[in-house]
Amino acid sequence: MDFSITQLFAVLAFLSFAGGSVPYVIDVMRGKTNPHKMAVVIFTVLALIGFASQLVEGATLSLVFPAVSVITNVSILLLMKNSHIGAITQKDKVTLALAILILLIWYITESAAIAIILLTVVNIIGKFLTTKKLYKHPDSELMIAYVMWILGSIFTALSVGSLNWILMLPAINNIVTLIIILAVVKISRKKRSLVSTLG
Fold first, then answer.
1. DSSP letter string over the chain?
2. Is pLDDT larger for residue 127 or for residue 86?
3. pLDDT category, 1, cuts 50, 70, 90?
């Protein structure tokens, strides 16, 4: 793939992520969006390690995804307000312990490729927490941001420039998990609407 095309995809990825992250962070600051606390902690750690491991693995333009992820999640952590929605439970602590265990395995192996694979597994764990929260509280997050992040992930995968599945894995995982989250929100809202109509 021509380098100029990968550059274009990288720019589109950045614009898409920014287009989702900026309004999302603003919504968090205003208290309208209430992310799952433990999920944000997990995503922040993943973003930091993911950026480092992809850099070691040789990523260049596709680093847009982890870089924006770091900035977004750190901002969310700093701006989050106390809320009963997504409060940390005992199960969440077990989830975090599992995430740390997986990261320790990566540390012992000292392999950037293994790191990316394991980080993807932990990311799925964090997304599971968010999915559970959104099923109960489908209006607790800004869904347009998720749509923009899916677009950003598609452009990020394309910006790799070759079929390097290790470098493309985080973006592909993001596409699939975010689509699942949107589907869950739609199902939850439809269920609530049906209950409200019957009630």
1. --HHHHHHHHHHHHHHHHHHHHHHHHHHHHTS----HHHHHHHHHHHHHHHHHHHHHT-SGGGHHHHHHHHHHHHHHHH----STT---HHHHHHHHHHHHHHHHHHHHT-HHHHHHHHHHHHHHHHHHHHHHHHH-TTSS-HHHHHHHHHHHHHHHHHT-S--HHHHHHHHHHHHHHHHHHHHHHHHHHHHHHHHHH-
2. 127
3. very low
For the residues 35-39, what does the mean pLDDT come to?
A: 80
Q: Please state, in angstroms and rounded to a whole number, the distance separating the CA atoms of residues 146 and 189.
A: 16
